[in-house]
Each structure stands twice: as C-alpha cells, then as structure tokens.
Design goal:
alpha+beta, 8-stranded antiparallel β-sheet, 5-stranded antiparallel β-sheet, 17 helices, 32 strands, 28% helix, globular, MGH1-like_GH
Length: 685
Amino acid sequence: MRLDEINILQGNAFVVSDRQGDINPAANVPDGLFYRDMRHLSRWQLRLNGHQMEALSADNLEYDEVVFFLIEPTGTIYRNPSLSVTRRRAVATGMQERITVHNFGNTPVAFELTMIFDADFADIFDVKDQMSKTGHLYRHRRDGGITLGYSRADFCRETHIDAPGAFVTEESLTFRHELPPGQEWATDIQIRVGVEVNVALERHPHCPDMPCSIREWLDESPILDTDWDDLLHIYHRSLLDLAALRFYPFAGDKASLPAAGLPWFMAVFGRDSLLVSYQMLPFHPELARTTLRALAERQAIHEDDHRDAEPGKILHELRNGELAHFGERPQSPYFGAADTTPLFLIVLDEYERWTGDTQTVHDLQPAARAALRWLETYGDLDHDGYIEYQTRNPRSGLVNQCWKDSWNSVVHPDGSLAKLPRATCEIQGYAYDARRRTARLAREIWHDPDLAERLERDAEELYRRFNADFWLPDLGYYALALDGDKKPVTTLTSNIGHLLWSGIVPPERVDALAALLCGPRMFTGWGVRTLADEQPAYNPLEYHNGTVWPHDTAIAAAGLARYGHRDEANQLAMGLLQAGHHLRHRLPEALAGYPRESTLVPVLYPTACSPQAWAAGAPMMLLRMMLGIDPEPDTLAVRPHLPEDLRRLALHGVRFRGARVEALAGTAAHDLDRLKPIPGARELQ
C-alpha cells in the first residue's frame, strides 16, 4: 500500500485511487475500479477549469465509502481559492460519486468541471505482469452517459457511466455552470458494471444468516474491555477490515467468504479463508461455516494437471477474470496448495468445538473423508508418510505449494533452491494435527471408532518419524523441509512456530525453539522474521525470506502458549500489537524484517496488501492467546496470562456453543458492577 493511496471495498468490488480521488494510469500499479478480478475503470481524473485539484484531506468514512476535500490551486500562497470541491465516493457493484462545488467568494464564478475516464479491462494478472489485451474494446455514447466494453469470444465485461446533464465525449464528461456567491452545486455520477452486453449488475446483499451492515457486524462482535487504548483501536480496525473483505466468489451463492487481501488478492484463497475462519471463531463463527461449506462444494473430484487438482484436494485460489476464463491461467479454480486440505480438517474440528454444530460436521463428513484419502494418497507422492508437493503444471503452476508460496521461499541457508519435490515441515505438523482432530470427529460424531483408531495410530507414527527425520540436533531446531533427495533443508525459518501450533513438537525441545523465536535472529521487536538473519538467504525485504507477517507471528505466539511458554508468547504479541500504534492501527500483510532498534518504527513491505484478512485476524488470535480461551466439552475455559504492561483485558459476549460468555483477566475481573455478567465461562488457575 502506497502512502498516498486511498482504497474502498465491498463485496466483489474495490477502488484504489490517490488522495485527490483520481485514478491515474500507470504500469504495474493496481489503481482503478475492479470487479471480480478485472479493472472496469483505469482512468478517473477530475479537473476544475482544466487544472488538477489539490487535496486538503481525504479519509474513509467506512470501508466502502470515502470523502475527498479539494481546492483549485491558485499558484501562490498569498491568494486563497474561492472554489472548493468535495468528492464523496461509495463502492458496491460499481461505484457512485457525488461531486459538490462550493463558492465561498463574494462574486459569481463560472466553472467547467471535467471527468476524464478510461477502462482498459485489465485482468488482475494483466496488471501484475503488464500483459496486453487480445479482445475487442468498444464504447457507445448515449444521452447523459456512455458504455465502455470489452469482448473476447464468449467473455464480456462492461462499464456503464451515467452522468445526467454532462456533455459526453468518448473520453470525458464535462459540466459547465455559474455558481452564485455562497452557493453550492452538486451532481451524482453512477458507474455500474456488467458481465454481459448492455446488462448492469445489481448490488448483491450479504447472506441472510450473516450480519449484513457494518453496524450489525459490530453489534454481533464481542466487546473488548482493556486499559490499552491502542488495542481497542486495533480490535475495531480489524473488525472493520474483516467485514469489508467479505465477498461473493461463487456465482449464484448467497454466502460470503473472506477474501485474502486488497488489492492483489481480492479472491478466494483456501488457505487464507480457512486460517481467517480459525482466527475468528470466538468472534464470528459464521465465517468458518460458510467457508467450510463453500470449499467442500468445490473440492476436487478428479485429476486435472492444468489446475493441480486431485480427488479430495481443497482449492487454493479462484479467479473470475479473462485469463482464468480462457484457461490461460489455472485459477478457475486452482488446487496448487499442499496445506489447504489438512487445514480444512483442522478448522472443521475447531469449528465444532466452538459451536457444537454437529449437523455441519455430519454434512461435511464425505468431504472430510475425501480429504483424508488425499492426505494418504495423492498428498504423499512417494508413500513415505510425508506430504510432498510438485506441480503437475510446470508452465503456470506454483512451484511452492506451502503458505510461503513465492518461487524462492524454500532455500538452503546459502540461498540455493531446494530440489523438488519438497516436504516442508509445517505441512507435516498440519497433517499430524488434522489426523488427531479428525479422529475425535470420527469417534464422537460419526461414530466410527475404527477410523478414529487408525487415524490416531497414523498420527503417532508421523509424530515419531517426523521428530527423527526433521530434527537437526547439532543446530537445535527443525529443518525447513526435506528436499527431493530427502536431505534436510537446514534454513532457520518461522515455520518452527507452526510446528508448536500443531502440537507435533516433544516438550523437551520447546525451550530451544522458544529461545530462537524470541531471540534477535528471528524476533525483530515487532514480530518474527520468516527467515532468520545471519544466513546468506536473509533479506529484510524479501517476500518470504526475512519479512515479518502478522499472522505468522500470531501462530508462533499461539504455539508457544500451547506449550506453556506464556511469557514468550506475550513478548511476540506485544511487539506485533505495538507495531499497530504506528500503522493507524491496521496490521498489513507484511513488514520489512529490520530490527526495531534500528528503525524505531515498523517499516512496511513495499507491496503489502492492506487490508489483508489473516493480518486483520492476527490480533483476534492474540487476544484468545492472552486470555487463554479454550473450548472444552461443557464450558469455555479461561486461563489468562497478561503481559506486564497490560493490566486489564476482557472480552464480553464471546461466541461459544450458541451462548454468549465472558473471558476476563486482570482488574477486569473486578469491574462487573458496570458490565452485565454472562454465565458459562470459568477461570482456571
């Protein structure tokens, strides 16, 4: 996110502009109005009497609305303008802009207001890779408006601009008016999008069984009570961002899922949606329900090399743009992730633990069993008990199919690439956890003790072999991966935090991992580096080889807490939350991996998504960790352990098995005279 960038989003649409409200054409920059992975406006520039406006201020009113206050430049500091302009913009299925001109002078002023527009209909992959179009661009003027369109075979996208009273050319809208002193003039411009010729789409409401408006979403959220003001703002910002990122990826569906992040990843990513759903279970469990059901309905049922699909596999990414439509990119959907399938099983179990919704677990039993078969067959390429990955699509498939899915993320300490196929350590941890959790579901809900016993045996065998093959006794940590020759990749990475989260680490090894995660090689003061410094492969600005990802740090903190290392977990949590103070209380996708003592403030990764879903969910995971909230069969256990600087922390109205419960710590436990107690939670010492 650039410092001068303003963005708004809702559902399947988002707008990125500068602080004047203008959308300016530029290569490799995702500015514009986007809908379902395609850009419907690539230029949208306001000019007053032929001049670009100057911004006095610009800020979001809500996630889907922004207001810009502009003035006409005078060319000198000694003369103030008499005309000012307000642009108020909202996005839904398309965009609405209300422009108001104010005359604060003493004489009438004649003005000309012009909006210059264009639509390149670039696929999001076109923008990233600077590709040219192969279809046909067209435009049709009409009274008070114009339609911009793009067609290629059976694929069509249109942008309908309606500006009553404007003089319309094929590239601009112009209004001419004389404004009396002390008066204002306003006009509304509507931009509607379409996916077939001459048909504009209607706005899509949120699913009836989910909170619709932002007020409903916030009202349904637990109330945070704390003495740390920054934490209150971070919590509120995260709730707003996660509400904004709900969208409708599947045509005809009424259920919204969390998109991964703006601007590059406003799409379904199975891994992201599942992890966000996990993070949000105490707050909005309906996200997990819709995510699990939607992913199960699109679970792969046959082999497809182009899409890396195999029976039982959970999808990685779904796009709706031109390149996916014509098969030029495999994301229609694409299944190139080796971790989404075990994560699906983990979230299914965790969802039932929080909600008691056994019906969903029964309904998804076929999908869960198919996912287990994938773990045991296609996921284990050489039948050695580990999940390995290697794309079936060498032309456009992902080389790395773990969460660190950039091309160079699985490297030896010297930076050389590990040989394929690769078995990364954290995926083995997920597979272990998935088997243990699914064994519980099989025994308690599906009433299949034979499956439960087999899964428990398989989990124990994986535990034994993993801790023999991946542990590096001379270095005191786990290998990042086993390469194609089954040789350990000895790079020290944040993946060890995921192993703690999964529970695959023996207790006697936890101290060594905790010291690394909280030591200067890995902990920057703001969060955990994806790759530890002092290794040749380390770069604080490399996407997965030295940056800090909030969700990654939160997972490490949760893993440390799982093993009783609460002080170390709080150290990571406080560093990450303190970063939010400097970032307008929004945690971005990633931060640069510079040490805190060198920069004093957190440094943004240059192309980080903001907002980004699992970064917004990271504070929720940290709140759960600090309060020690854990669902048990008949109650919500609360085992608080607060950082030294945090004296009071409480969540009122935590969602647990259809009830609202309280989680209290510190002095909050003595403040119930002003808060309505909700029975059902207990504090464990």
